[in-house]
Write the structure tokens for this entry.
Amino acid sequence: MNIRHHPDDSTLVAYAAGSVTEGISLVVAAHLELCPQCRARVRDATDLGGVLLAGLDPAPVGEGALAAALARIEADIEGEPAPPHTPRAVDGLPATLVPWLPAGLDRVPWRALVPGIRHFRFPGVDSGGGTVRLLAIAPGTALPHHGHGGTELTLVLRGSFADEIGRFAPGDLADLDPSIQHQPVADTDTPCICLIATDARLRFSGVVGRLFQPLVGI
Amino acid sequence: MTQAGIRHDTETVPGTVAPPPELADWLAAVAQSRNRQAFARLFQWFAPRVKRYLQRQGADPDLAEDLAQETLIQVWRKADQYDPAKAAPSAWVFTVARNLRIDRLRRQRLYEVELTDEADTEDEHGNGHQRTLERLDAGRLTALVGALPAEQVQVIRLAYFEGLSHAEVGKALDVPLGTVKSRLRLALAKLRTAMG
């Protein structure tokens, strides 16, 4: 997989620091699964977290805290239960997303959104004021021109789209902040399937966009 | 527990305290032989720092102490999952504390993947290993962070310790979001270049 578009360093720092919404973390994790380069970048940002933790002014801890902790580990039944079974990637669908879509990308329970666009919401993922969903955009269909109240991350899983920034193919992640307005168009002959998370509502511009807003709720 | 109570400043300068190299030995002793003494040392070193971290994230002192204890209990339970090739001990404990904070203070979770490096498994010539050796040099990274310009350290601190989004950091410092992001990018680029 030749990935050309990656999350911004500032996004990976926010991820490693744990200050992103659950929905944003889902998209970052799915990209990391596909991108060894970004896994290395997150390791750097995590190392930074460790160094910062080590540099913190130690807070006084109660006298009995260590004894209490030792008593708790003695009471532990020996050994930690095996980590939960981790699913494997299914035909273009990162393992991170398989728990919601065990049958893979070919059998997503899509719902129609507007002509040319279907979507699937991830139940149980908290996205703060935003959303996280899978979109299937029919070939040639354009999303209305829109800007963002916050961050918008889009990870292409199948097909591709093009916008003012460039062309995005499977594995590519578009990392947009509020200053960017764009209009993605699915530009191949198969539907473009992408995972999109926002941490605030999108702002559509123009008459068509304003009509679109209540329908989409993104 | 010598450090606790001696320093009274609430804002330490990152880069002044490098994690001691013994942390890796203590963690290994806990993982391999369930060594209580090694656990006690890990507790004494980490619990006061994890407590401070949680207080910075908005927990009151009692809750912060409970969660610091919980973090170290998890370190005990998960010690055999710790892989020194993937993270320095302080980075690993940081992720345990961070995930506990997200779970208990925010009632959310952070989706994660194994941060393996394909170079570690696929490169027969040891290039991945080279990278691993550099990773473990937390002392060097500490010094590099200490040498960053103050404005870059400030945004890093706010991101890691205050649980703030970059937009919130921008509001707190009264600078545009783009400035927050570019300071973070500059800092990361500098650290990466210096670490090779």
Chain A has a mean pLDDT of 86. Chain A touches chain B through 62 residues (CB under 8 Å). Helices of chain A lie at 9-17, 22-34, 36-54, 65-75, 206-216. Residues 36-54 of chain A form the longest helix (19 residues).
